[in-house]
């Protein structure tokens, strides 16, 4: 018998280590690529917003006050009259807290067919305090054209917890807003012929001219001809040329491209959130940050005199004042062309918090050293 000699793993280790950097470099661009379907939509395939006004009944005393919520009382009277109950003569005697007026909203998906179900959201309109356990009555949902496209009804689920006692209350979540899964039935379809035109247009979710040209180039390379053209930073026009529109689009949306992005810094000033893109660069700039902090502490003390001294108990104020000039802060220099990582590391090295970092970024932009778009929300 002939025996095969096996090379030990230690002998293969140098070769594996030598090939590892090349493999990582080859895999790098692939990891940055995304599918076209994840960054672009087909023009015409869109949702439509629906809205309606309805009543939620069956609440445990947490509904609207009929004396102050006039629209709830009028809606309740109208519903009862349609069901054969006349309450016009006793309108002022209506006093229930088990009914709440609500706004019902939903998104009608593209190609939703008659009889399909969609989710809806329910939000209190009056002074109701809790919609948990309520039942939404039949509510027509209208689109912008005034036509009814769906009808909603079902039990409201808020996912919130609310408990109240004589001297306190606890609330978790928002009990005045809820959802009904599959709570509406589609009654009217939005007409749209997907495969009737000679061209399709892709709409980029983040408009960018470079990304649009890359998408057109990838589609042309896959089709073997010039069927795609980037008409503007948001739109890529594709000629069907007698092809099966569904099959061709299914092939296109699986193609991968590397999207480009604008150097942008987004600041949410209310919450102190800062998000910076990977292409953010800085010119050479010196940064110094420091604040004067004065801390005043009041610690009053109770002075109790000796029982034989005949004095009275008194409260003596004690005030402590501390001044922090933050002299340990130093002037920091960021060299030109630094990356996002260098910028964050430099600011963190200065001990800068999110709030102060927002001020620093705005000042750097004002000095012309921030080579990026600064967006403050």
Please explain how this structure is put together.
The structure is a single chain. By secondary structure, the chain is an alpha+beta fold. It folds into three domains: 48-159 and 171-186, no CATH class; 193-257, Alpha-Beta Plaits (2-Layer Sandwich), CATH 3.30.70; 265-302 and 315-376, no CATH class. Helices cover 22% and strands 33% of the residues. It has six helices and 25 strands. It has a six-stranded antiparallel β-barrel with strand order 3-4-5-10-7-6. The chain has a four-stranded antiparallel sheet with strand order 2-11-13-12. It has a three-stranded mixed sheet with strand order 16-15-25, covered by helices on one side. The longest helix has 24 residues, at 9-32. The model is unreliable at 1-31 (pLDDT under 50).
Strand content: 25-35%
The number of helical elements comes to 6
Indicate the radius of gyration in whole angstroms.
33 Å
The number of strands is 25
Helix percentage: 10-25%
The biggest beta sheet reads:
6 strands, antiparallel, barrel
Unreliable stretches (pLDDT < 50, length at least 5) are 1-31
Overall structural class, as computed from helix and strand content, comes to alpha+beta
Write out the strand line-up for the largest beta sheet, numbering strands in chain order: 3-4-5-10-7-6
Shape: flat
Count of spatially separate domains: 3
State the end-to-end distance: 78 Å
> Mean of the pLDDT scores?
79
Q: What are the main properties of this structure?
A:
four-stranded antiparallel β-sheet, Alpha-Beta Plaits, alpha+beta, 377 residues, six-stranded antiparallel β-barrel
